[in-house]
Write a structure and sequence with these properties.
alpha/beta; globular
Length: about 300
């Protein structure tokens, strides 16, 4: 599997990041099997969070395999705007560490942003956590590019570590609305910012919650959230083109959609959430698909 460097961690991470929302202690054997398969394929990056309920099973797998130094853990907390305060951050990290059963987190992200708190105050607190050794680097999930820029401008002017990565929603299907309250999706203007900054982007819902699976069609409005977020003439034309390009390349439309995320002209990591080994295999094959600039533009209706 190809990798992307994260300078603040002084190491490379796999372009696919295993999402862990479907893992639980009640099904530890399933967790173990999926994570073993992901690592065997070259993956080393795992995404978890306070609200997923997956930190404990992920931590148990890491302890049973004795591979903590080989694994890059992306952990998150503070999933509502009002929770994000400088005072809450150390307590949130302590909770992550306790549930994970580790004495450090490689890349810790605020699950939401609170624009009422100056970015510099958040950067100061997170640098203190880095100095304490409890986290190695940090970033923002669902942070706008203006806030990311403000945080890193402050860090640079004060000789501090800045945001090492950002985790918004990016997919070939353009979102019309937030899937959940407080979520951020990438606009074309945002993509220009990522091109200029080259900040690593960790895309959640990189396959648009299955929009490209073939399960969703314009005449089927049964999933209200999918209709609200993804149903548009533009997105269904993108689906048609992904299906056509997939036929030419011998892969599925959803694999084309995942390849689109990975083939951006800035560092892009796709968070995946396979529910079984077949879905994991599909993602692993998609990671190998290479799209030309012309194919990328065609998929984007340009």
């Amino acid at each position: 599997m190809k990798t992307i460097p994260i300078p603040e961690l002084n190491r490379h991470v796999s372009r696919l990041c295993m999402g862990t929302m479907v893992f639980s202690r009640a099904e530890q054997s399933f967790t173990d099997d999926m994570l073993d398969a992901f690592v065997a394929a070259g993956g080393n990056l795992l995404d978890t969070a306070e609200v997923y309920g997956s930190e404990r099973p992920v931590g148990e797998w890491i302890r049973s395999r004795g591979n903590r130094v080989d694994i890059v853990v992306l952990d998150k907390a503070l999933d509502a705007t009002e929770k994000v305060t400088p005072e809450a951050i150390p307590k949130a990290i302590a909770g992550n560490l306790e549930r994970l059963g580790s004495d450090y987190i490689d890349l810790w992200m605020l699950h939401r942003d609170n624009p009422q708190v100056p970015a510099g105050e958040i950067v100061d607190v997170l640098n203190a956590e880095v100095r304490a050794g409890r986290i190695r680097a940090f970033g923002g999930s669902n942070w706008g590019t203006d806030r990311l820029q403000a945080a890193n401008d402050y860090a640079k002017s004060h000789g501090l570590m800045g945001m090492a990565g950002s985790s918004p929603h990016l997919s070939l299907a353009t979102a019309k609305d937030a899937m959940w309250r407080g979520c951020i999706w990438v606009t074309e203007e945002d993509r220009d910012w990522y091109r200029r900054s080259q900040m690593p982007l960790f895309s959640w819902s990189s396959q648009a919650r299955g929009f490209f699976s073939g399960r969703f069609r314009p005449d089927d409005p049964s999933d209200a959230n999918m209709v609200r977020v993804y149903y548009s003439d533009e997105n269904f034309e993108k689906l048609r083109r992904a299906e056509e390009l997939g036929r030419r390349k011998g892969v599925s439309a959803i694999q084309i959609a995942l390849a689109w995320v990975l083939d951006q002209d800035f560092p892009a990591i796709a968070l995946i959430g396979p529910a079984n080994r077949d879905e994991l295999s599909s993602c692993l094959e998609a990671e190998k698909v290479e799209l030309t600039p012309e194919e990328l533009a065609w998929l984007e209706l340009r």
